[in-house]
Amino acid sequence: MAKSKQKNKNKDKQKLKSDSSVSTQASSESQAEESPKGEKLQKVLARTGIGSRREMERWIEQGRFAIDGRRATLGDRIFPTQLVTLDGKPVDLGSSEQVRCLLYHKPVGEVCSRKDPEGRRTVFDSLPHVGSGRWIVIGRLDFNTSGLLLFTTDGELANALMHPSSMIEREYLVRVMGNVGESTLENLTRGVMLDDGPARFTDVVDGGGDGINHWFYVVLMEGRNREVRRLWESQGMTVSRLKRVRYGNVFLPSRLKKGEWMELPEKDVEVIYGMAGLPPKAPKPLSDKEQQKLDRLAKKSGRRAARRLASGDNAPKRKRR
User: What is the value of pTM for the model shown?
Assistant: First the structure.
């Protein structure tokens, strides 16, 4: 009986010791989780709407940012109390709870960079002014490609949509010069090797046409430079017209003319955040007066683009002196 009691006491002591050890371990893990490590600089900057995360990484490498007076480097983490400057000017690190998203019908003859060394017109020249933050383009189209472009003021959203892991479909309407046979279409959907690795269309649909010129709808799951053109060129074909008509679940509206843009309503903004796998932000509310002004600007932008295209004026802009 005494031996049994002693055994039970020993078991209780071991259990208490074990429980104490587990409790101490859980406490230290909890403290480790609560210990602040800060957030990556490029992630915080993208959230403010200054630019996409990739763009922020380039600016960090260029030495444009400083943290508390020290030049920032990739991999730096920051806290809300620290001072971050861009080109010597303080940056407001507070992320906006509201967002603006815009759909633009890009005409041929515009570049997707903010500034062009050749002085050519950029897509940003046609967009409305943003009070705080700035427009970030989601994906790019080359100079000779027209169609759907999305813009946002949320850098995290732009980064998520452009990241290769997002696997978002891009659909194009393309006019091809050459005799396209079944073997060519099989090669393009099975995959070919380009200079920067293997590539393929996930879908090709006949769009009609007569003679040497034929239309096709093609779908890509990525957005490498000139990928549609290079895929067709790998089969000895020439692309004479190229237009993006869809980005994920967003289609180019038939009523939106070249050079025109439209502010996306809340339901469309939610769709875009859903594509990115992010919780949606509310669109910035606009008064009736502001909305009317934006509608006028959008139509005016389209009329200017139509005049340029009709006159064939894709020449570089004159630089102001």
Answer: 0.71
